[in-house]
Amino acid sequence: MRLVILTLLAVGVLASNDDLWHQWKRMYNREHNGADDEKRRNIWEQNVKHIQEHNLRHDLGLVTYTLGLNQFTDMTFEEFKAKYLSEMPRASEFLSHGMPYRAKNRAVPTSIDCVNLVM
């Protein structure tokens, strides 16, 4: 009897995911074909599972914010990072090497006498 209930629950989840997948694709104008559709769907399902698990932790009071679906739900973090995030130097690099000053067409003094500086 347990197996029947678990099977019915799994089928219900898959059916609702199928509907949600098609709604999501319509909302964000996604048209994938063949193997790419299957790949995107698998990534999307993994992200939906992560979102649902996180929101369950929110409902239990373990985290303070919720997650939701957006136009990036069919992307891995690596894909998102490569497409939308620029490589920024680490703060530690600025601290150890300083941030270079690149003045264009300006003469920059090699030193400044701060003691006798007149303003």
Description:
With 119 residues, this protein is mainly alpha-helical. It has a single domain, classed as Helix Hairpins (Orthogonal Bundle), CATH 1.10.287. 56% of the residues lie in helices and 0% in strands. The protein starts with a helix and ends in a 22-residue tail after the last helix. The model is unreliable at 3-12 (pLDDT under 50).
Comma- or semicolon-separated keywords:
119 residues; mainly alpha; Helix Hairpins; 4 helices; 0% strand; disordered N terminus; Papain-like_cys_pep_sf
Short overview:
With 119 residues, the chain is an all-alpha fold. The chain has helices at residues 2-27, 34-59, 77-84, 91-97. Residues 21-80 form the Cathepsin propeptide inhibitor domain.
Poorly predicted runs of 5 or more residues: 3-12
Task: Count the DSSP helices.
Answer: 4
**Order of helices and strands, N to C?**
HHHH
Strand content: under 5%
Helix content: 55-70%
Q: According to CATH, what is the topology?
A: Helix Hairpins
- Tertiary shape: elongated
CA distance, first residue to last residue: 88 Å
Mean pLDDT figure: 82
Number of structural domains: 1
Over all CA atoms, what is the radius of gyration? 26 Å
What's the CATH class, please?
Mainly Alpha
Largest sheet: none
Oligomer: single chain
Topology:
Layout: H1 2-27, H2 34-59, H3 77-84, H4 91-97
